[in-house]
Amino acid sequence: MTVTTTVPRPEAPAGPPKLSREALRAAQQETLDTPRMEYGLLAKMMFKPVDLMYGKQGSFAKFAMLEIIARVPYQAWERVGYWAVHRHAGRSALAKRVFERIVEARGDQDNEQWHLLIMQDLVQRHGLKQNWLLHQAAPWFIAFFYYHVSWMMFLVKPAWSYRLNAEFEDHAEHEYMTFVAENPHLEFEPDPGTYADEYGRHRSVADLLRQIGHDERVHKLDSLASLDEPRVRAA
Q1: Helix 158-182 and helix 138-156, axial crossing angle in degrees, nearest 10
Q2: Taking a C-beta distance cutoff of 8 angstroms, is the pair 161, 222 a contact?
Q3: Other beta carbons less than 10 A from residue 173's beta carbon
Q4: Superfamily of domain 39-225
Q5: Which one, of 10, 28, 65, lies nearest residue 215 by Cα?
Q6: Which residues neighbour 175 within 8 Å (Cβ) at sequence distance 6 or greater?
Q7: How far apart are CA 203 and CA 21, in angstroms?
Q8: In the structure, how many helices (H) and strands (E) does the chain have?
Q9: Do the Cβ atoms of 190 and 205 come closer than 8 Å?
Q10: Where are the domains of the chain?
Q11: N or C: which end of the chain has fewer CB within 10 A?
């Protein structure tokens, strides 16, 4: 009689915690009181053209574009992870660890996808116009560049890719929290709740954006905690 052993599948992370209204306000103030990271050349190469094309001030349209790019490093890590699982299939402990990292990357990517859907919904509700060049072609070009840089850096030295992502997430965290601080009317704008079942319902758009900003902080801290991860070797 053959006994089949079922290996438990790793569960996808629950994602960043959903905070209470008071905790969200405290998180915003903490972000505003914390200096931005010292951004490297690659991060600046992405932030500068974005500011030139969409303005230095935050906006729903600008955030929607940034969220298209935000998913990219997690997609790159997932790709490298699947390659590594096949490469190290004969080393079960290593393959298991790599696959767990794939699951984590997928969870982060899904969280960023909800951010994108929420921002696109807010863009439509506010009647903001988006043109093909700035809101389709440009984000695709930047994402294409970011994707290939991320996975190449990850292959050579994961810390480089994690650091770049931490800088991107730090930038996003500060952009969201600053935008809320500069637009107090958002406190009185109800959360439309379009994705409340999947992302949670908040009392206002201000709290919704604070939650997204806090998510970005969690992603940043996760990347910083992964800086010592060993390189994925080709053999």
Answers
A1: 140
A2: no
A3: 26
A4: Alternative oxidase (1.20.1260.140)
A5: 28
A6: 58, 63, 66, 213
A7: 8
A8: 10, 0
A9: yes
A10: 39-225
A11: N
Tell me the C-alpha distance between 143 and 148, whole Å.
Answer: 9
For the chain, how long is the longest CA-to-CA vector? 69
Give the integer Cα–Cα distance in Å for 186 and 117. Answer: 19
Q: Which of 6, 16, 79 is nearest to 220 (CA)?
A: 16
**If you write DSSP's letter for every residue of 23-66 in order, what string do you get?**
HHHHHHHHHHHSPPP---HHHHHHHHHHHHHH-SS--HHHHHHH
DSSP state of 16: S
Going residue by residue through the chain, which has 235 residues, state the pLDDT in tens, using 9 for 90 and above.
554 444 445 555 667 999 999 999 999 999 999 999 999 999 999 899 889 999 999 999 999 999 999 999 888 887 777 666 566 555 555 455 555 666 777 888 899 999 999 999 999 999 988 888 888 898 888 899 999 999 888 888 889 989 999 999 999 999 999 999 999 999 999 999 999 999 999 999 999 999 999 999 999 999 999 887 655 554 4
Tokens for 232, please give them: 């994925």
Which one, of 87, 76, 106, lies nearest residue 14 by Cα? 106
Cβ atoms < 10 Å from Cβ of 198: 11
- The single-letter code of the amino acid at 100 is E
Question: For residue 148, which amino acid is it?
Answer: H
- The model scores a pTM over 0.70: yes
